TrEMBL record:
It comes from the Bacteria. One of its GO terms (molecular function) is monooxygenase activity. The keyword RNA-binding does not apply. This is 5,10-methylene tetrahydromethanopterin reductase. It comes from Bradyrhizobium guangzhouense. FMN binds at residues 58, 104, 154, 158, 231. Residues 27-390 form the Luciferase-like domain.
C-alpha cells in the first residue's frame, strides 16, 4: 500500500509567519494573531480538513542580525511581535476533538521543573493531543534577554538538551505510578502517597533535589516529541529522542539525504527507523484551474516584502544580508546560528548557485520550503512524487495567507488525496500518539529512553 500522507498546518503566534509582507493581502487574517477568534476559526478549519495537527513555531528573541538592528523586523512584522504559543491551545482544543497540537518551546531558557508541569497540564486539558517541538534556539537576542552575552555554542546546546530531556523524562515518567490517584470519596483519599516518588538529578546543567512532579499522570505522560534540527548533532539528538522530525529544504535532492541520515542514526541505536515520522515544509497554492492557481500565486508574490525576507534569513543563518548586493552569491559561513537554512542555499544542492535575489524569492512565500502551485489533481501528483523521492511521512504546510490557504487545502486538496487512498477518511481514535502510531500506544515504549524512567504499573 502507498504511504498515507499526513498533514500538519505550520503557523506561529505572530503576523504572517514565514511570508513577510503577505499580511497586507486583503484576504489574510494573521494581523488578528492576538485575538482568539482567528485561532478558533483556524482550528475548526484544520479539523474539517482532518489535519493531523497544528504545528506552532516559536522564536524567543527578535530578528536583529539584518543591519545589526531590529528595525527591519519591526517594520515588516518579521516574526515580531510574537506571543506565547502555549496559551492558545486550550481555546483551540475546546472547539475541536481530534486535532493535535505540536508546540515549540525553547529549553535553553525554560527550567525543566515548571515546564514539565505546564506540558502535563495541557496534555490533561486536551485529552492527550499535545506534542512538544524540542528546540534550543539560534538567536543571540534571546540569550541577551535571558541575561547572557550570547547563545551557547551550537553543539553544546544539544549536549545540554540531552541532559534536559533526562530531567523531564524523570518527572513525567518516574514520579507518579499510573494507579497513584485513587479519587476514593468513601475513604476521603485522593492520592496514595506510597505510589508517588521523589525525583533527583544532579548534573553540571540541572539539579532536581528530592522533588515530585506536580501533575498526576496525563494521558500520554510524555508529550509527542518533535525535533527540528538536521545538522549532524541535531540528527543525533533526533535519532535518540524524536518521534517526529520537522525539516525544511527547497528540493527533494536536499530533503532525501536528510531523511535517510536520521533513519540511519536511529537504526544504529536500536530504534525502528520507520517509526520516526518525517515532516518537511511545503507551501500549497490551489486553484480550480491551472490558470487560476498561477494568478493567485502571482497575486501573492506582489505582496512579498524583500527587506522582511532578508531579516528572517539573516536571523536564521546569522549572516547580515543588509550589506549584500541583490546579485551577490551566498556563500557558506560557520557560526552558532541555525545551520540547516544556510546549508539549503550553499551546500545542500551543489548544482545550484544562490544569489541574494534568489533568497528573497525563496523565503518570501512560505519560508524555506518548496511552493507547489496548481489544481488539486496536479498538486496531488506533485506531492505523491515528492513522497516517492524523499521518503517523508508528511508535510508541515506553511501558508501565504491564513486561514484562506488552509481552507483551500481542506476543501479542495484533501478530497482529492482521500479519493486516491492517500489520506485518512476519518480520524483514528485516541491520543495524538495513538493517532500517529496506532491504538494502545498512548505512552512511549522501549527502546525510547523515556520509557526507562517509568515506575510502577506499565501502561
Amino acid at each position: 500500500m502507498a504511504k498515507e500522507i499526513r498533514l500538519n498546518a505550520f503557523a506561529m503566534n505572530c503576523v504572517a509567519h514565514q511570508s513577510p509582507g503577505l499580511w497586507t493581502h486583503p484576504r489574510d487574517r494573521t494581523a488578528e494573531y492576538n485575538r482568539l477568534p482567528y485561532w478558533i476559526d483556524l482550528a475548526k478549519t484544520l479539523e474539517r480538513g482532518r489535519f493531523d495537527g497544528l504545528f506552532l513555531a516559536d522564536v524567543l528573541g527578535v530578528y536583529d542580525v539584518y543591519g545589526n538592528s531590529p528595525d527591519a523586523a519591526l517594520r515588516n512584522a518579521a516574526q515580531t511581535p510574537s506571543n506565547e504559543p502555549l496559551l492558545l491551545l486550550s481555546a483551540m482544543a475546546a472547539v475541536t476533538k481530534n486535532l493535535g497540537f505540536g508546540v515549540t518551546s525553547n529549553l535553553s531558557f525554560e527550567p525543566p521543573y515548571p515546564f514539565a508541569r505546564r506540558m502535563s497540564t495541557l496534555d490533561h486539558l486536551t485529552e492527550g493531543r499535545i506534542g512538544w517541538n524540542v528546540v534550543t534556539g539560534y538567536l543571540d537576542s534571546a540569550a541577551r534577554g535571558a541575561g547572557k552575552d550570547k547563545q551557547t555554542g551550537h553543539d553544546d546546546r544539544y549536549d545540554i538538551a540531552d541532559d534536559y530531556m533526562e530531567v523531564v523524562y524523570k518527572l513525567w515518567e518516574g514520579s507518579w505510578e499510573d494507579d497513584a490517584v485513587l479519587r476514593d470519596r468513601k475513604r476521603g483519599i485522593f492520592t496514595d502517597p506510597s505510589k508517588v516518588h521523589r525525583i533527583n538529578h544532579d548534573s553540571a546543567n540541572y539539579r532536581i533535589n528530592n522533588t515530585i512532579h506536580l501533575s498526576e499522570p496525563s494521558p500520554q505522560r510524555t508529550p509527542v516529541l518533535y525535533q527540528a534540527g538536521t545538522s549532524p548533532r541535531g540528527r543525533q539528538f533526533a535519532a535518540k529522542h524524536a518521534e517526529c522530525v520537522f525539516m525544511s529544504g527547497p528540493s527533494a535532492k536536499i530533503i532525501a539525504p536528510r531523511v535517510a541520515a536520521i533513519r540511519e542514526e536511529a537504526a544504529k541505536i536500536g530504534r525502528n527507523p520507520a517509526e520516526i515520522l518525517m515532516f518537511n515544509m511545503m507551501t500549497i497554492i490551489l486553484g480550480k484551474t491551472e490558470a487560476e492557481a498561477a494568478a493567485k500565486y502571482a497575486d501573492y508574490r506582489s505582496h512579498i516584502n524583500p527587506e522582511g525576507a532578508l531579516a528572517l534569513m539573516s536571523g536564521w543563518t546569522g549572516i547580515d544580508f543588509s550589506g549584500y548586493e541583490l546579485d551577490q552569491q551566498v556563500r557558506h559561513v560557520q557560526n552558532d546560528a541555525g545551520r540547516s537554512a544556510l546549508d539549503n542555499v550553499t551546500r545542500g544542492d551543489p548544482d545550484r548557485i544562490w544569489t541574494v535575489r534568489d533568497v528573497i524569492e525563496h523565503v518570501g512565500i512560505g519560508g524555506a520550503g518548496p511552493v507547489v502551485v496548481g489544481t488539486p489533481e496536479s498538486v496531488a501528483d506533485k506531492i505523491e512524487d515528492w513522497f516517492e523521492k524523499t521518503d517523508v511521512d508528511g508535510l508541515n504546510v506553511a501558508f501565504a495567507i491564513s486561514p484562506g490557504d488552509f481552507e483551500d487545502i481542506s476543501d479542495m486538496l484533501v478530497p482529492e488525496l482521500t479519493r486516491r487512498g492517500r489520506y485518512k477518511p476519518e480520524y483514528a481514535k485516541g491520543t495524538l500518539r495513538e493517532k500517529l502510531f496506532g491504538d494502545g500506544r498512548a505512552r512511549l515504549d522501549a527502546p525510547h529512553p523515556a520509557a526507562t524512567y517509568r515506575v510502577g504499573k506499565k501502561g
